[in-house]
Amino acid sequence: METKELKEQLFYKKQSVYEKADEKAIDAAYDFAVDYMKYLDDAKTEREAVDAAIVIAEAAGFKPYSLGQALNVGDKLYYNNRGKNLFLFTIGSENLENGIRISAAHIDSPRIDIKPVPLYEDEGMSFLKTHYYGGIRKYQWLAIPLALHGVVIKADGTSVNVVIGEDDNDPVLYINDLLPHLAANYNTKPLGSAIEGEKLNILVGSRPLGNEDNAIKLNTMKILNEKYGIVEEDFLTAELSIVPAQKARDVGLDRSLIGAYGHDDRVCAYPALKAIIDSADSEHTLMCILADKEETGSDGNTGMQSDFMMDLIDEISIARGANPRIVRANSKCLSADVSAAYDPNFAEVFEKRNSALLSCGVVLTKYTGSRGKGSTNDAHAEFIGFVRRAMAEYGVIWQAGELGRVDVGGGGTVAKYISMHNIDVVDLGVPVIAMHAPFEVISKVDLYEAYRAFCAFCKF
């Protein structure tokens, strides 16, 4: 055998999707991206992501599920947990004790939340006080167009949805930055501490209503009252968030990339959602979880540390006459979450041989955590082998990766919370440039390979 052939046979080499896939597959990837970009624009908060997913699921024949209802082979159902966490599942023809194929992504993204008593006036401007959510780099949120999204619960219990800054005719909001002429002291501070959290105040107005004290604040409140019927006290029972105002856009002269807010983790949530819809005829029982609160530790009853996933598996098992412990022991899960794409502009924080490369397909991450694999699931080799065979069976282009150099940093996913219930789980998702930025970037072909990987997992 020639040396070249021997190398091809024995060596592992990451290859670009553009090298391995044909033009038809690449065209399919670009077509898939169109609807994904619409989903991103419709789903800038976890509530909106749930609503948008339900619209997609119902169009495909999924129906609402109530705890305790009878279940039959072929059922396609969803459970909306408090408007911020969605479970979709199908009942397959095989014995449920063979386990459930689960994909679990999160639909919350780093953002800036409005405090309960936010509105104030200071020297000719009115502002909203904030408390940032998740791991943001605070300086990235200054001096860019921002939008306000959320829900307000009024005194009588009625709910009002708020969206300001998305329509072309809307005003946008803003966080003031310091001009470079006066920033000498700020320029000497470390990047991570130059901007304090309490300085992330949202500029919302400057025009007074009358000549009394707090006239600008009064005018701001009057505008909100006229548009949404709310008073200042209603902020106490509101969930309002600041997100970037821009829409998802093609990036690059070749339009091969997508830039948007919220790729982490809707770039995994959307293909996982589409995969369960398109694989509903699988003999396996399938479940897709779109979870909240991952960016803050997965706490709360809409996060993956909640027992509701186990309650739902128990309910499905009871309805199908199966032992839920056996069902869990034989279930398999893809923790659908993003990874850091190798960036040659910041090569010093990556170990290239074990980093995910842009446009080389979906990335499988055996372990996350930090330093000595702290706070990670660290998937078993046998289960990784199963996933590997599934992707080979369906021709999915994939790569292995990890999150940066050892001792540089790290991160976590929901995998560890799922594995604690005796379910095999491994991380699989899309590599992202500038993760957690207000405008992240991914490759269209990586997105499509993620969708194909979830489909393979559902069917294999």
Descriptive report:
- With 460 residues, the chain is an alpha/beta fold.
- It folds into two domains: 3-109 and 261-459, Zn peptidases (Aminopeptidase), CATH 3.40.630.10; 111-244, Aminopeptidase i, Domain 2 (Roll), CATH 2.30.250.10.
- 29% of the residues lie in helices and 25% in strands.
- Helix 7 crosses helix 12.
- The protein is globular and about 85 Å long.
- The chain starts with a helix and ends with a helix.
- The model has no long low-confidence stretch (mean pLDDT 96).
CATH superfamily of the largest domain, please? Answer: Zn peptidases
Provide the spatial order of strands within the biggest beta sheet.
1-2-3-14-4-15-21-17-19
- Estimate the global geometry from the Cα principal axes: globular
Indicate the structural class.
alpha/beta
Task: Give me some keywords for this one.
460 residues; alpha/beta; Aminopeptidase; Aminopeptidase i, Domain 2; 2 domains; 9-stranded mixed β-sheet; 7-stranded antiparallel β-sheet
In short:
With 460 residues, this protein is an alpha/beta fold. Helices cover 29% and strands 25% of the residues. It has a nine-stranded mixed sheet, with helices on both faces. It has a seven-stranded antiparallel sheet with strand order 8-7-11-5-6-10-9.
